[in-house]
Fold these 3 entries.
Entry 1:
Amino acid sequence: MTIIDSLLNDFFWRALIGGLGVALIAGPLGCFVVWRRMAYFGDTLAHSALLGIALSFLISVPLNVGVIITCVVIALVLVAFSRTRALATDTLLGILAHSALAIGLVTLSFMPDVRVDLTGLLFGDLLAMSRDDLLWIYGGSVVVLVLLVTLWQGLLMSTIHEELARVEGFPVERLRLVLMLMFSLVIAVAMKIVGVLLITALLIIPAASARRLARTPEHMAGLAMVFGFVAVGGGLALSWHLDTPAGPSVVVTAFLAFLVTYSTTARTAT
């Protein structure tokens, strides 16, 4: 048995490897959540993940596929409704977030033959990470990282000044849709780590901590990865020694790192 096989056969190391894979993409993508003030949007997509899980059972597809499909549909609905300006954006997000979560729960209740660990789905089940979960996480990570590297300038420019980005020839609407697709993919692969109710925290908190120290956008994205790694490693250690839930422990560790960073450093201009 190789060292890799030995690591993958141990539930703790699988959890750590999977958590680090999610932090790898949640960090840089979380920077756009912070820059664009999209926290509530992230919550809406995360809440819709439960509806995606119900859809997965209905049409017999892998959970991750159902979650991605649902998140993409919700994102497109948000774009369409936001253009009509019939409702304020925060009102629309609130309606879709809680409605999608409730519809998902109600739909699952009509499936008596389907056994679902709701606690694990809502708050994560990091220590139950499987090899298939690792494949999803690192496959999704590669896709998101390639898209981020390829589209970084356009995404950054449209974030800083949308009108200027249009003048410079960047496809702003297409970039917004790609960003939403990346959010959907991250939510699908991170669901196992911290659950649908805490995914947004893993996107926002490391990025917010990094913002305090970073001097450039690229520096902030790199630091957000590091803070994500610290959150995963520290959360797993906390869970191991104190027998606390792994997913919430990761978020608690991220929050503690945020408090330490903000209490000991001066604000930068990033």
Note: The chain has twelve helices and no strands.
Entry 2:
Amino acid sequence: MVADYSKVKSQLKKHLSELKARAAGVENELAQPMSADSEEQAVEAEDDETLQHQDEALHREMKAVRLAITRINLGVYGTCAWCGARIGPARLAVMPTTTLCIDCARTSAT
């Protein structure tokens, strides 16, 4: 029996839209010109580095969400990408973008 993940897919699409909006905000901040004041430039450079890390994290998360949506569309969502076992519903509820069952996730962490 194939599980109905339409609600999960809808939630993932909503989350993806939110991530895109946050990434656009970060990218807008990064595009702002630097201050003419050299001391202020040093602070802005630090801020830009932090923003760059946030942007990278947002893009990684967007990629994971897109992959989860693709896995739903292909009918393989909820199946471990390594061993083919079913990923537990509780794990999917907490980590809807996971591609690994708990056993494979533990193995990959070591």
Note: The two ends are 33 Å apart (CA to CA).
Entry 3:
Amino acid sequence: MIYHTNNTNDNFVSGSVPIPSKRVYNFWKNMETNTVQDIFNYNVVDEYINDYVNWIKADKLNKLSGLENFPWHSYSSGTTESFTNFTSRYGKRCFRFFKGEYMFQKLNARNNNYMWMHLDEGPVYDNDAVIISLPFSDFGTVHPRLNTVLEQCNERNVPVLIDCAYMCIAKNIEFDFNQPCIDTVTFSLSKGFWGIDKLRLGIRFQREDRDDNLDIYNKWKTLPLHSIAIGRKFIQEFETNWLWNDYGGKYQQICDANNLTPTNSILHALGGEQYKDWNRGTSVNRVCVSNALGDIDE
């Protein structure tokens, strides 16, 4: 698929897609892989997890602390598998998330007949379970009510999942994960690399081994080992903050030229009234500028 790269509104979309990067494309094209060798390399799961944890720690544009309090790490199929395990574990609670959150949360609750309610509609209650993206999906930065919600969750012993799927595209995010209410933290590579979203590569951080189905799959190595081996190659090749380092200047130019407000997530900017049809229920209109940033056909 060819992406246009001139800075016109036709290049903006309402969703969230990786940047069509020439550097990523060339890495795909020149990558040396051995499917048979990878499929029978059961060590690759631990190698991937170890490299991924170190990749997150190497982040120089965000200040994340407290992850050492979540020493149990598991491969997750993107962040989605971590979501479904969290909601299954707390299925008798009411799931809470903000308006503008990743749409999967509402679909998952609806399709599984879970109770759910927007955090915008009231305080946290004792029987809740909370899911929050960091950076927040619709704003591209920390949700302004994040700390208030976490304080309420700490007071009421309400479990929280922090969704860091967008952390690989973020800068200037400061957060301490070492809070009693935080139950699960999950990251994904999907938004960081063009095409890698098809491989479903993520990681889950927990305080202990719960021996749930995700942990069992990890222990038995009944996982997509070839995909995991490819994910490890990307982690080894690309520095943690490569997107901002490579495309940060162009991102600012695109925002300036199109009267968009920059965010802390390089795929997203905030647009005006002409983007109101893309509104996700909040005070902003999120615009995905990935295609305008792309350089695949330059």
Note: Residues 1-8 have pLDDT under 50 and may be disordered.
